[in-house]
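Handout, section B. The chain below has 376 residues.
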Amino acid sequence: MITVRPGSHMYFLLKLLSVSGEFPSKSMGILGDVRTVKAMIHKMEDAQKIRLSNGSIIKTKLFQASGKWNDRTVRLNKKGLEVLNELHPNALGYYLDSLPDNRFSGNELTIDRNHRVGESIAMCMMAGIETAPYMLPELQKDIIQYGISETPSYYVSRNLKKIFETELRKTAYTRITGLLFYPGGSYAVYNIRNAVMKINGYGEIKVRQELSEIVRMNAGLNDVTSALLFGVNGDIALQTLFESDKSRKKQDLFDNIYPSIHFIPLTHDGIDLLRILTLPNWHEKLMSVLFAADMRFNGHSSIEFDAYRDNKYYYSHLDSDIARLIRFNGALETHPQSFEILCFPWQMQFLKGYLCKPIPLKPIGMPKVLEALGII
């Protein structure tokens, strides 16, 4: 007998699919142990007895999978949709509104788009960020009022479109997967997966303007200046930024549209980093953990750095801000000063391959940072 319990693999996957519609089988590791999750899905492709919260018992198929190998996609089985009521009274209605009659497109671009959205939702969900639209306050554009959750929340692009459907063409949202709020700030969210994303400068500028209007109306923030870039590795993320360099207009550059772009790997390290980046006043807290007050630098300089002591400059890449890293690397060639870079162990290989000259790297374990920040 199976029961849908909050916090279980079953609960997370149901909640994820209720919003994204489908999810790539190769990314199941985001949700936990791959073997455990895949075994659960395989079992629920056959009819199983499920105990509902009202005491009744149904026997139904819950999941279905299609495609081969790396292209395999997991969806909800039409016969088991009533189980969505176990998540929230409005979950089933939202799902059917998004996917009438549980029909899916076989178009590869549409499936890839759904997978990008699904992975973004999964990363946020596993970091403790609320992602279900039916569990979040609705966003609006009519009056300035604080109407968002007090805790981090993620709104998928499908719902953002509805707010500005008369002013903004749907194609303007083809790159963004959602908007993330955290106490005191917000991020535009993108997911490049394992391929370089071509940036439409005008479209992303327009998107940022509309997102800024949303955060101004609903969260009391001035604008959106930061983005999260999910992906398989940092090299592909950098290539995406360099791809925008081919634009003839400087204002169309992705790292000019968003001065801060935090790369988040689609791994459990990325989930932990996401937990850090959604803390209230996270940057100040992180800097205070890393550097003594008399080392901190808060002024202006021709090169990016965070602290200074005994003729040595310190730069932190723990926030994985690749837009800032590009600026740092560009100025590094003309600066003879001695530098040290603080990073997580999983960032070391990427930094060694990217920096224009050798710089000592000081790895800092993620558990130690999480503990110092009070996350664990």
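Note. The chain has three domains: 2-104, 122-278, 285-372. Compare this with the example in section A.
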